[in-house]
Amino acid sequence: MASTASTAVARGNPVLKWVLRLVVVGYLFFLVGWPSGLIVRRTFEGGTQAFSDALNDPDVTHALQLSGTIAIFAVLINLVFGVGMSLLLVRYEFPGKRALSALIDLPLAVSPIVVGLALILVYNPRYGWFGEGLDAHGIQIIFAKPGMIMATTFVALPLVIREVVPVLEDMGDDQEQAATSLGANAWQTFWRITLPGIKWAVVYGVVLSMARSLGEFGAVKVVAGNISGETTTAPVLVQQKYQNFEQQTAYAVSFLLVAAAVVCLIVVALLRPKDHTTSRATATAALQEKP
Amino acid sequence: MSIDVSGLTKTFGDFVALDDVTVSLPTGQLTALLGPSGGGKSTLLRIIAGLDQADTGTVTIEGREATNLPARKRNVGFVFQHYAVFKHMSVAKNVAFGLEIRKRPKDEIEHRVEELLELVHLSQFRDRMPSQLSGGQRQRMALARALAVEPSVLLLDEPFGALDAKVRKELRDWLRRLHDEVHTTTIFVTHDQEEALEVADEIVVINDGRVEQVGSPDTLYDKPANDFVMRFLGETTDLAGQTVRPHDIDVSLSPGVLGSTQGTVTRILRVGFEVRVSVVTEDGSDVLVTMTRTLARNLGVEEGVKVWLTAAKGATSVPVMAAV
Question: How are strands ordered across the β-sheet holding B242-244?
Fold first, then answer.
């Protein structure tokens, strides 16, 4: 609707069309393009020297590895639980469903710092609810990887679910019922029918979660306790290096973070159009259908 | 051997979809579950398929107790109103689905898919995606998919409901011919009485969660159990306390026949070969009479003319229900 309205406006007035384009491009340029571009420029100001120096810094490589590990775990957890929760929310009726649905959006609304603090309250080895018991068994959550993974998972929790739920709703359960009546069990139905149907929503949710997890700062900083060289993730390192007047290193790591995010989005953009056009063709075919 | 449903009750919240339904659906026949929307016929079909669970009652399919059997073990084929095609699979893959689940050998699957696509006239579309098919073609594919697993029963839930009138008519004839070829016990749900009368061997009329009548199309049309069945299976009008069909009323311009009802023609409508005459009787009720153009001309029926109406000899009639 909106797009047809705007094309109608644009068609009516070529000046307006160009003004609108200019506003949009300018807005994106000053807010996103220019700042990100500056990072790239600063990184490579003195050639690739500063960049390769940064990559040879063991702090940097460790932080990148740590960020990568945490992001992968957080994404895997969110993938499994996200798809499961989406199925639960769309396919089943149970008391408290709406409350659960609202709760899933909580991580988007709450400041990540608060998430970190909340996790500390629960899992702190000295006075946390579970912390003491876990600590007694030698399991350390806070100031260690498990806590950082949990914080990251918490923050990125809604992303897969919010991508998958509308697609599942749109898909309906007709195909699943058909599969069941043809003899497929629950697992076969999920694997052969449901998952292919929500494939692209899952991919998109995973990529968004990946980008979000790699960049998470606040929640992770609180639970990580900043044990230098051990629990410093890439975004935290950027802040540290910047404050220690090691700007070149900070820019280099920033560049890598931006690059990772851009690669994620490009991968999705390259993968998606194929499917997008077919699903749109399906929708148009369904609309125009004169059987 | 048959499908036996006994004492089936199903409620959705306050709404009673099925109220103590007991019915036996014969093997090898094409049976229609006919009734108005929301009458419970789809619910009955879904319970037979195992897609819904009844609150109470039992289902027996071909002598096998199936009440608590999951849908995937009932060996029924189900065809949905909106086709429920597997969108991401080609036509051939859709048809092969049930066989692949059953882990049949590859060449057997291929052979069977070929055979079924032939049967539903979709052989040339085997590698297409469902989005490239018309609605009628998708439904034929869904039928082939359901038949692939050689179900003991084929269940169709308003199979032609989403199609336009012309295609619906074609598919209806085709379904009848298909059934004559494969003889699978088939039950289909419809709210279209014409569809049921034309295609089915046996019709079960369902209304308000209850079975109103079971019988052949002729039985239902000629000997309706009550005025609901009579009204649902075709046009009716009320004459002298009886529900009759409008074409079963004899019109005379003189009071010759004993027990005839006197009235005045208020309106005449000519629709093709048919003439629809509205008559207001002396007690003020409206009666609709239909006749052929020729008969109307010969009689000299015109607006304002006094007429005497009698139900034709041998006409189907039931007493008018006070509540209706």
Answer: B237-239, B242-244, B317-319
